[in-house]
Amino acid sequence: MSLQDFRNYEQLAVQFNPGINVLIGENAQGKTNLLEAIHLLALTRSHRTNKDKELVNWQAKVAQVKGVVVKATGKLPLEIQVGQGGKRVKVNHLPQSRLSAYIGNLNVVLFAPEDLALVKGAPVIRRQFMNVEFGQMSSRYLYNLSHFNDALYQRNQYLKQLRQRQASDRLLLEVLSDQLATFGSEVAAIRYQLVKQLEKWAQPVHEEISQQKEQLQLQYVSQLTINEESTVADLKEQLQARLREKVDKEIAAGTTLAGPQRDDLHFLVNGNNVQQFGSQGQQRTTALAVKLAEIDLMQEQTGEYPLLLLDDVLSELDNDRQTHLLTAIQDKVQTFLTTTSLSGVARQLIKTPTIYTIQAGHLQREG
């Protein structure tokens, strides 16, 4: 992997170990920046900021991240440039015209302290979680989500015009509603199926961490009636009906009130909503179980294990949860773990870590 003018890295070239890579350093030295670069290379976006200019070293105009992904089919070079003129990506040295065509070549699972908000935070966080993770697993999901977001934006803009009486053509609104229902029904159907699959992998992990005392359920919460027998055509019909019912309220509000952009994901422990009624320990166990389940679900859906990025997460977990996390990933996935020091349970459990010290954007491999 190589970086050029990314954050506080003016120049870096490193070949990481396929096992567990531990990045040690004090705060503000560049540990999380390195994980952010890997995240950017995979998903074309930072997990920390929406402002691309923040990714570019203050002395430069363009930041560049390159990496070579080793898959069962062979090696695949990836490249992304960020800066003036937006983002530019290459796969196997060939420029890609659409970012959606690039995503999926390298999959990552990120686990950071703020991921506890996945359980106890606002619904928008869980929708973003589904979009990011499911988009890596399914090109069909990413395609329909992209077109759904375009249709939603256009429909919301037109609703605002109708509210302000700058437009009066309800026929155009019907066309936009049909587009929204076409792509929205696909998004909802894939979400439902992948949530059920994620639950399948998360349940045994959660049971083991809780010593068989708790059972975890994942529930996709939608305005639509959706189950195993639901077809995309049925969901489209339901969504069209919802949009017709709400059209006057939508014009008054100037925004779309029905669709998967308002859905949620609930976590139930022994039948109780852990977001509302769970202890902090139950919320942490749920977040950990879901993150570990993602690893196996991605492998099931894509045939390849993702990279695991652990950003200072050990400090947020007690010894039991640290033990389960580190035992579960050992010899399984390439892992990047940031910490200020490797001690305690982590030092005992990680068999053969490759340790790097980071200071002011400079990487030094120990040993």
SSE topology sketch:
Elements: E1 2-6, E2 9-13, E3 20-24, H1 31-43, E4 62-71, E5 74-83, E6 86-91, E7 94-96, H2 99-102, E8 108-111, H3 117-120, H4 123-137, H5 139-163, H6 170-209, E9 216-221, H7 232-253, E10 264-269, E11 272-273, H8 274-277, H9 280-302, E12 307-311, H10 319-329, E13 335-339, H11 344-349, E14 354-359, E15 362-365
Parallel strand pairs: 3-13, 3-14, 8-12, 12-13
Antiparallel strand pairs: 1-2, 1-4, 4-5, 5-6, 6-7, 9-10, 10-11, 14-15
Helix pairs in contact: 4-5, 5-6, 5-7, 6-7, 6-9
Task: Walk me through the structure.
The protein has 367 residues and is α/β, with parallel strands linked by helices. The chain folds into 2 domains: 1-107 and 304-367, 3-Layer(aba) Sandwich (Rossmann fold); 113-303, Up-down Bundle (Glutathione S-transferase Yfyf (Class Pi), Chain A, domain 2). It is built from 11 helices and 15 strands. The protein has helices at 31-43, 99-102, 117-120, 123-137, 139-163, 170-209, 232-253, 274-277, 280-302, 319-329, 344-349; strands at residues 2-6, 9-13, 20-24, 62-71, 74-83, 86-91, 94-96, 108-111, 216-221, 264-269, 272-273, 307-311, 335-339, 354-359, 362-365. A 6-stranded antiparallel β-sheet has the order 2-1-4-5-6-7. The chain has a 6-stranded mixed β-sheet with strand order 8-12-13-3-14-15, sandwiched between helices. Strand 14 and strand 15 form a beta hairpin. The radius of gyration is 22 Å and the shape is globular. The model has no long low-confidence stretch (mean pLDDT 94).
